[in-house]
Task: inverse folding
């Protein structure tokens, strides 16, 4: 049987992590292709609902990444995001969502190698956990969009 | 109870307020309903007992209630905290409401300004009640799969009536995320994922703002302990960021402020 290939959705900010992942590519660093990146203006823009929607659409793991504290393009977006994540993680854990599948990181535009390392590490961890079938599903059984399925 | 009615009659007769919002008898002895009193004669309808639990501050944002003019409000402790939190969020002007606080012994205290409310609320004990804390700890201590099964069972009963939203004094957005349908964030029908999303989003939008009045779970026709979700976030916001909503009109909202050295040991 083929090894389980997890679907990982990464919500990243435009200014640091997306550019960092770009550097991973231009530096010819090879990393796990399991990640689907979604570029947003800033980590401050990453609504916690997006994470639930990703799991709801069949993601096995989620990465959220942006600029290091102090480096935000909009000065303070990541500071605000960090507070929200702290509370959101506590609530997720309380309602029984598996926090081992939700990963937060700071990856700057110069850290192409760190991005590759992060994705590989998350992939290995999710692979060990297996598919996230326990997450609640939609009742209507709506088919997954082609790009995710 | 008579002290309350007398005070209401005086306030209305003197023209200090145009209306009084209090509690009247409901359809059964253990039910009460909100009651708007506009003339001294109507004050006889007001009652006060242990079932007067609904947070009446919820009505203040409604246009038809605003149109009544200056209001007196029969208040529990958590009603007072809701008033301060509304003021902190620029939703309540000082002097628009006279709070009629009823203490445990039935004594009526008139609080005409936000400063007076702040002074009284400062004596209210902070933090969770012992019963709530034990319930939180019990659930948090369950293994992950049991915790998920517990909440899946609770949320499965949710019928999306949004009574929790309607009962909350701090859920005052004119257009809620549940009404946004392009995209449809939260499905209209009741389904496992949508019910989780709704209850998570409701709790998150109250994180660091909730004043622990318990009106959401009182209003829930299915008896879901929604307030536990609020408590867990309130506790985290209090320990992490020092958030104490509803004690002062000047306090910053925990999620709209930050410190450069906020905790981040979970971020790589």
Result:
């Amino acid at each position: 049987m083929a090894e389980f290939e997890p679907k990982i959705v990464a919500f990243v900010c435009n200014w640091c992590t997306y550019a960092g992942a770009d550097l991973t590519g231009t530096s010819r660093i090879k990393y796990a292709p399991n990640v689907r990146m979604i570029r947003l203006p800033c980590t401050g823009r990453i609504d916690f609902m997006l994470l639930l929607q990703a799991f709801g659409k069949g993601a096995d793991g989620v990465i959220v990444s942006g600029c290091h504290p102090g480096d935000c393009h909009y000065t303070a977006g990541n500071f605000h995001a960090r507070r929200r994540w702290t509370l959101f993680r506590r609530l997720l854990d309380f309602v029984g969502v598996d926090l081992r599948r939700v990963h937060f990181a700071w990856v700057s535009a110069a850290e192409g190698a760190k991005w590759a390392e992060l994705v590989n590490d998350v992939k290995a961890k999710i692979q060990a956990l297996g598919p996230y079938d326990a997450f609640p599903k939609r009742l209507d059984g709506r088919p997954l969009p082609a790009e995710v399925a | 109870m008579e002290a309350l009615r007398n005070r209401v009659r005086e306030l209305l007769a003197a023209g200090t307020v145009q209306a009084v919002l209090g509690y009247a008898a409901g359809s059964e002895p253990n039910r009460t309903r909100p009651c708007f009193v506009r003339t001294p004669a109507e004050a006889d309808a007001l009652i006060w007992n242990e079932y007067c639990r609904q947070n009446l501050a919820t009505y203040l944002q409604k246009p038809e209630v605003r149109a009544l003019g200056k209001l007196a409000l029969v208040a529990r402790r958590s009603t007072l905290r809701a008033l301060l939190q509304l003021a902190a969020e620029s939703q309540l002007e000082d002097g628009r409401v006279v709070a009629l606080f009823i203490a445990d012994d039935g004594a009526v205290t008139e609080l005409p300004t936000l400063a007076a409310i702040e002074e009284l609320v400062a004596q209210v004990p902070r933090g969770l009640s012992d019963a709530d804390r034990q319930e939180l700890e019990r659930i948090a201590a369950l293994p992950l799969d049991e915790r998920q099964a517990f909440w899946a069972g609770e949320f499965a009963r949710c019928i999306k009536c949004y009574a929790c939203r309607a009962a909350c004094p701090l859920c005052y957005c004119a257009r809620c995320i549940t009404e946004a349908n392009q995209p449809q964030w939260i499905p209209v029908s009741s389904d496992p994922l949508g019910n989780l999303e709704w209850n998570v989003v409701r709790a998150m939008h109250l994180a660091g703002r909730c004043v622990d009045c318990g009106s959401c779970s009182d209003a829930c026709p299915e008896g879901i302990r929604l307030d536990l979700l609020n408590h867990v976030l309130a506790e985290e916001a209090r320990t992490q960021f020092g958030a104490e909503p509803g004690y002062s009109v000047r306090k910053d909202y925990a999620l709209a402020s930050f410190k450069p050295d906020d905790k981040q040991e979970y971020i790589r």
Notes: Residues 28 and 135 of chain A are 35 Å apart (CA to CA).
